Amino acid sequence: MAHDLPSSLSPSRVSSFTDCALAFRFSVIDRLPEPPSLPATKGTLVHAALERLFCLEPAERHLAAALTCLDQAIDGIRLDPEFTGLALDDDAEQAFFDDAEAMVRRYFELEDPTTITPIGIELKLEAAIGDLRLRGIIDRLELDDDGGLVVTDYKTGKVPGERQERSKLGGVHFYAYLCEKNFGRRPARVQLLYLSKPEALLTTPSEQSTRALERKVSAVWAAIERSCSSEDFRPRPSRLCDWCAFQAWCPAFGGDPAEAAALGAAARAETEVPVAVA
Ligand code: SF4
What we know:
By secondary structure, the protein is of the alpha+beta class. The protein has nine helices and five strands; from the N terminus they run H-H-H-H-H-H-E-E-E-H-E-E-H-H. Bound molecules: iron/sulfur cluster (SF4). Residues 20, 22-23, 235-237, 240-241, 244, 246-247, 250, 252-253 line the site of iron/sulfur cluster.
């Protein structure tokens, strides 16, 4: 029996499939529950603080206000399973919040938020390439001084080395493509703001990068279709295995992928709301 195709692709799904097709299957097709991850939860918190900051009037977006936004975001995350599931002790929790604060402070070394003109925050966009639906959430979309669109993506992970830089910017071209399809014009600039350093990676989308993105995403989609119809999702062991939540079902670690399919189906059945019979 062939696997069902996913309903859409996002930048993270494209990376997931190209990094390891089997991990993609476990996550997207089998929809196995994944434990919360400390880096991802910290990213969620910092993004929430900056989202609140940009809801303020431009003149109010100073550091003290950003730290208040962070406190509000901390209040909002304390009871969230994404945070409680980390089961941090008091020291680890303090280190987690201190690190988030350091990132918010570093943000101010990269730009002056009072000068930014956002036209969209946490903007959900969709576009189609043939039958394929692309989906993405843009952290911030703004206008530059000439009225050009600028896509900004906050990054709370490590700054990539030169070899990884291209693939990171590839994700941003995905967002540029979504903008072009939705607003009828290509962004003048896309930028990744790394809050761990701080450092900014900038690129200018072009006709060439748009076409390259279309080709890459179409090729990944065709590969996913083949994998689904042949039920062939191969493991691709790499350093990423150290952080993979699916080792227990991965043949590279002595696991059985068939058990993952049954577990995913059971987990989904538990969360599905029963339909009332009249
Ligand atoms: S453990 Fe490694 S090879 Fe196995 S599914 Fe995870 S990323 Fe892929």
